[in-house]
Amino acid sequence: MTIVQEKKIPGKTSTILSLIQQLPKDYKVVLLKNEYGDIEVDSLLASQSNISGVSEILNGCLCCTMVGLVENALKEIRDTMHPDRIIIESSGSAFPATLALQIRQLEPEGFKLDGVVTVVDSLNFKGYEDSSPSAKLQARYTDLLLLSKHHLATERQMDDLIDSLNELNDETPKIRIGPAPDNPPKPELIFGLDTKLFGLVEGEKESWDKIGGRAGWHGDEVETKQIYIGKKGKSKSKHDHEDGEHCEGCKEKEEDGEEIHEIQPVDRELLDKELSKLSFEIYRVKGLIRLLSAEPSGYTTNILNYAFGRYELTPIPSLDEDDSLKGVSLRLTVMGERGEVARRARKLAAGLGAQVE
User: Fold this and answer.
1) Beta 299-307 vs 282-292: how paired, if at all?
2) What sign does the CA torsion over 266, 270, 272, 276 have?
3) Distance between CA 320 and CA 328 in Å, rounded?
4) Are 329 and 229 in contact (CB under 8 A)?
5) What is the Cα–Cα distance from 270 to 286, expressed in whole angstroms?
């Protein structure tokens, strides 16, 4: 089992998919991940590859999830999908050590952790060095650092990045990867790490509170908002209590989607214009968007992945007539610095003719 994490920027899923593409066709890999928002964006992308299955926890952080919930998810994957490997993709602000310890407790059940792999954005890591405790902790508690987007950085930027990473962790290997499909990480490297994390964790566990490693702390770093055009998604709020307890103020809530509207595709030039206005405080924008096109339907269905002025659109024609997306023209999750997201999400929504949920 392998844990993959990254600093609030796209790249983890692309790295994982490039890894899986090198495996034999009969090799079964299942991805367990958590996602912000109400559309399983990376699951839709993964469904276009030869991955065996995807299990997602929406709006949750795996390293903060109760051990029982992680245990149940892993056992269900083992018993229903019978994979050769499970890759866990944690959230961009996750603290990996707590999740690694959860997996260690499951060793009697047949689970074993290969290691923790951290994907570092070579262009933007420096922006988090002072503002994000999670960036420092992730770089320290890891068995391998994969440097993505290094081809876009200058020699000076790369020197500064390596210096910063070495200050945090001078023993962990650092390997440059990409851009896809060039130079992907090798399966024999990722799946053969034989983690050294537990020795480090046991020696420093008592000091985690001092450096911000307690469960749940990192949620303060990220805020999210949903924007949409057309059919609204379902809003869910659910959590579990210790020993089966319940509280009056906590209940599961589901709001039915609004009345289904005709598809209102977004113009690509308008999308370019509005995304170009986003500031550095917005880390990511991801979700589904239907763009105007010359197709008989008048639109194409795309997955949008945005980070710091760059974005990718992945057309998925199979979703054009998906029943679960009827009436959905746009459904995006905006993620960024706490205190900044709500105002900037409203501006983005206004520019695209969307609403904020």
Assistant:
1) antiparallel
2) negative
3) 10
4) yes
5) 16
d(CA 32, CA 50): 15
DSSP 137-149: HHHHS-SEEEEES
> 3-state class of 212 per DSSP?
coil
**Tens-place pLDDT, residues 207-247:** 554 444 444 445 556 788 999 999 765 544 344 433 444 44
Task: State how beta strands 174-176 and 222-230 pair.
Answer: unpaired
Sign of CA dihedral 218, 222, 223, 225: negative
Give the rounded percent of residues in the chain with a pLDDT score beyond 70: 67
| Stretch among 101-105, 136-140, 145-149, 175-179 having the lowest mean pLDDT | 136-140
Burial 167-193 (b: 16+ CB within 10 A, else e): ebbeebebeebbeeeeebbebeebbeb
User: Nearest 10 degrees: CA dihedral of 49, 54, 59, 61?
Assistant: -110
Q: Please, what is the Cα angle at 100 between 95 and 101, to 5 degrees?
A: 105
Amino acid at 333: T
